[in-house]
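Lab meeting minutes (informal)
Scribe: AK
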Amino acid sequence: MDGQGSGSNGQEGSPEQRLRLTATAPGRLGDAVRLILNHAYDVVATLNPSTEELDALVQFLTDVGYATDARRQEWVLLADVFGLTDAVMPRASDGQGTPATLPGPFYRPDAPALPLGANLCRGGDGVPLVVSGSVTDLGGKPLAGAEVEVWHANADGRYENQDPDNQPEHNLRGRFTADADGRFHFRSIRPAGYSLPDDGPVGQLARRIGLSLDRPAHIHFAVTAPGYRRLVTSIFDGSDPAIDRDALFAVKPGLIGTFRPERAGVALSVVLVLDRDDISQRNLQEG
């Protein structure tokens, strides 16, 4: 694109086009279509693209569709890499709760229930890791009996369900119930960071425009407790060299953990703070 478009050739959208947009049905869908197309006309007017460049855009979107199947969601990757998914993630009240992050494509809802202190590592080598944590509300009250799901990549940066030939079923996954003080603990191995795939149209586009595809090492947590919003979050390894260039924009100050060296490996402590679910609380009060 030459970047010299002046808008004088009608590429900013004709009056008829603008009028049709104005006449679309009211509501969020109509508002979204109008807003997106108005911005698109502005881009066209500014960059003055050629028909070949428009064809290339259409081909890119077509390729994203072709790359999507039951095991790979290239459209989700597109939203993730450009920060759209993170932009619509729910935010904690007044910034006090633990920030939410993406569950990622490798989450499984069938992680086995394990006793506190169990080892998630069912196969594979790695630096031994001990994780201790607690679940509280915004005021610091322990949430006894909270359910804590955990999953993470192995020492090669690969999840069990993307690496079924080399890892046993449910490796590095588990579900725990916090004790009367809202605490939980388990053993595992230290996860490694990894890069998002660049063998598809989204990864190739990201590489071409200089976006990072690196993800720093992290551990996923999903926490539920009656009367509170379900929290899906991640704790990142603050010593990972990719901590400042996470491809999915998920690293927040409150999510950077310290993997402390210990004689037998490393240890990590986490505090997961849940926000109240206003709808559930209202139902409880009315009931």
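Next up, CB showed the second protein from the same session:
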Amino acid sequence: MAARTVIELDSVRKTYGDGTVAVNELSLAVREHEVLALVGPSGCGKSTTLRMVNRLVEPTSGRILLNGEDVTTADPVALRRRIGYVIQNVGLFPHRTVEANISTVPALLGWDRRRTRARVVELLDLVGLPAATYAKRYPHELSGGERQRIGVARALATDPPVLLMDEPFGAVDPEFRRHLQTEFQRIQRETGTTVILVTHDIDEAARLGDRIAVLSRGGKLEQVASPLAVLAHPASERVRDFTGEGAASRMLALACVDRADLESADRIVQPAPAPVRLGARLTDAFEAVAALPGSAMGRVPVVEESGDVVGSLTADGILGALRRAADAAGTGQGAPAVQDAVDGVPEDEPGRQPAV
């Protein structure tokens, strides 16, 4: 059964007064519980697209539906209270405590003090910043990474169906950025929130996105597919140029060790090297094989969850696994963008284009 569509952009266009086309006839469906990463070069309209969803930017034409409701007919203030929004510089109120920042939207919606306090405690625990330590602090008393996590907590305060994130980790140093990405993945898995993530970083998009939508200048949709499909089968030269070199190394971090990639365990040299777990990322498997001593004959044991050895893996096996993952991700080199029909929309409805 196809996942329910939460957000639908139907032939959305944004043209500014000077004639600049920021977004051009964009049709896109965002599925329930998924993280859709919008990527592309500067000027491709990805941030404009995000801001049209909560009407910080008004579309020139087309429709944007949130759970079937046309957002262009909704009260914009009420709409924004239903949609979480996280930006690069967080935007916390400097004169308000962490607790007061997170309580902003609940207060506007008339939540009572007890309910609000319980939600603050719950959210601070979710983002790994205990209320006993952080609730009464002010933004200037927090590190950049802590402020970013408070921004996520504030955006999730009223359990919105959708979370919009515009370069949320861009202002954080590379080492802590990876930590924040891991924390975000954990939070999103726990909450199941539907997320649109804007990033200029294809590595971040591949790591965090369930699907990636690649835009080119002028807000044209070039491809929307799984990270593996985008890397293995770019739909156009523009996609290939944006993903750049190193697609294979990025795919190592996305594909996993499967039984089909293994050879017999009988050929493992004793004493056996440290094993790789079945289902591990190919990145981990590659590092294990690369670290082998010469006596190990380039072969590591692979174990299942019980610890039992189920086979051995070589560099050739890793290469085969990479090819298998690429083949499974698409129909062939240069395959067209994956098309996803809009749930419940007849194909012959007049004036309606299926969302991608």
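CB comment: The first strand starts at residue 5 and ends at 15.
No objections, moving on.
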